[in-house]
């Protein structure tokens, strides 16, 4: 297939001249850390779909086997319960490093663990990449820009991050992970790729992870009011998950280290988001106001010119087109939950 043909550098293997794993047709062996999570499981689907071998490493903190169960009988798929904070030995061509809780509710639950995951977990995966000559992609975040003083955010912006706040375990953790990646690149010649991901939504998000899209969609399906934090005038830019996955693969396959912003530039206030949810899911939906959380960034919108130019990537799915695509998955899971409770 065309995608296979464009995919012939062999990860780190082309430089080292390493032969492909196994015998038979050339196939990449790819590790996806955090592959049982929301983004990771969609990425794994794409990699398996084009014929590669995929090993998922996940400790199931926020990930679920259900996200991958449809692959369990596939001989090219393997799932390892493992915490990336501990070292691991594997032979692979590429590493997509996603392991890290992404929702504020989850990453604040045990902040020290979040830092260990970002720092020690990333160090271990970079050590692995160095040892076997694999290409390494880090999923960093728009949170490295903090509460940004530049708008929209370009990759050249260094950010406005509180080092001692409630979000710091995540923001500073990811900033350190980026630093580690660049130091392994410069110091040990590891081929690294850095993606700065902006707010992403879609099927398989945790139902109760507290993120705004999953909250509003689940609340509307349950006929509860949507909880708008603060005055609802803060903005975010929401990207549908398949656009992100395409961007991650394009980044891995290209020659540029990055960092690259991967996000949808369509910017919405939380009140506007609530309007869209109401339009596409239930016209009788209502909102209620709640106090906002600490250090909440006031606005966020990616400048994606760099990814457009160098990766030939841009998102295709608008919020109005993407939201309906997650509704049936959410409805089914909410229904199962209710049945489980005997409701
Ligand atoms: P998620 O919480 O659904 O997935 C994270 C996965 O990592 C889960 O399966 C979890 O069990 C696993 N994990 C966490 N700690 C681990 C550890 N110590 N060892 C092994 N596995 C561990 O989150 P997601 O939305 O899929 O995010 C994936 C990546 O993308 C994260 O690195 C996140 O920081 C980044 N990101 C996501 C968004 C977004 O909007 N979804 C935005 C910016 C960045
Ligand atoms: N590491 C790993 N798997 C490997 C190679 C290394 O988990 O295949 C870990 C290793 O245990 C160490 C980290 O990655 O904690 C960094 O490894 P590196 O070789 O860069 O540094 P060093 O071991 O010299 O500190
Ligand atoms: N938010 C909201 N209602 C909710 C959950 C979040 O209004 O039920 C707001 C939150 O205050 C923030 C924005 O939505 O301004 C995005 O929050 P989220 O946790 O989804 O992502 P992040 O803050 O990491 O961008």
UniProtKB/TrEMBL annotation:
GO terms for cellular component: Golgi cisterna membrane. One of its GO terms (molecular function) is NAD+ binding. It is an enzyme of class 4 (lyase). Its EC number is 4.1.1.35. Its main location: Golgi. Pathway: Nucleotide-sugar biosynthesis; UDP-alpha-D-xylose biosynthesis; UDP-alpha-D-xylose from UDP-alpha-D-glucuronate: step 1/1. Keywords: Decarboxylase, Golgi apparatus, Lyase, Membrane, NAD, Signal-anchor, Transmembrane, Transmembrane helix. It is found in: Golgi apparatus, Golgi stack membrane. Residues 32-326 form the NAD(P)-binding domain. GO terms for biological process: D-xylose metabolic process; UDP-D-xylose biosynthetic process. Coiled coil: none annotated. Catalyzes the NAD-dependent decarboxylation of UDP-glucuronic acid to UDP-xylose. Necessary for the biosynthesis of the core tetrasaccharide in glycosaminoglycan biosynthesis. Belongs to the NAD(P)-dependent epimerase/dehydratase family. UDP-glucuronic acid decarboxylase subfamily. This is UDP-glucuronate decarboxylase. The lineage of its organism: Eukaryota, Viridiplantae, Streptophyta, Embryophyta, Tracheophyta. The gene is LOC108861984.
